[in-house]
Amino acid sequence: MSGTIVTSSASQAPQEHGWYLYGIVRRDPGGAAPPWSGTTEHLQLLERGGLAAVVARVPVAEFTTEALQARLGDPAGLESIARMHNAVIGAVHQRQAILPAKLGAVYADLEDVAWAMEQRHDALAAQLERVDQCDEWAVHVYVDRPTVRAHLIAEQASDPVQQQLAAAGPGRAYLLRRKLADSLAEKTAQILDDIAEAAYRRLAPLAVEALAERPASPSGDADGEVEVLRAALLVRRERREELVAGVRACAGERPGWRCTSSGPWPPYSFAASPESDGHA
Prior knowledge:
The protein contains 8 helices and 10 strands. The protein is α+β, with helices and mostly antiparallel strands. Strands 1, 2, 3, 4, 5 and 6 form a 6-stranded mixed beta sheet that branches. The protein has a 4-stranded antiparallel beta sheet with strand order 8-9-7-10.
């Protein structure tokens, strides 16, 4: 959450009301009403050049740092803000490209919004071109660690170290068991990395852009299912079925792992709105 009243060098002191920024869209050069205008009555458009900011007038007092921090302790209130934020962005996204703003970004004055758009006009226009006709999809890959370990333990039966263990004394046996355990943990971690990489290699080419991260994993001795990859994919709408098929193929590629997806969403992970340029 932004949690600050965004101002520029051109702004006046914050007034009683400010302007909540939902996102940036292209301006219709013919002056026609936006295709989503009938679904979101409280919204206004602020046009500058070839861009337009989707804004709504809100009480400044409800979006100060202190007010938003207080709402963090009220899940219902915070959820209400997030629901409205995402509902507006989603309604616009269904009808035209939008660069979503951060949750809670409020500008003190409309001129502050205009100033921010003017400062980054070309970059924002290029971003809109890039996300046009695209959706964001979230992909998660999970691996059942016990399944991987069971497979590796079966392979260890033919390991020379296993054969040495049968004839070793107590001290030597301890060292050999530690060696086997370390080897098992190392191979397990490598398989998890391989699975994550294989899924990413399969799915990333289907996207205009892909962002991936390897979530923090439990210790090598932990059991249960572990998430090995989470990725955000910016996918052109005509490739949606390819993505769904790719996720389904990943899910059955190896025993003990599954791949899930959710979407389509507005391009939250791939959009840079005005306040991302140091004004928030």
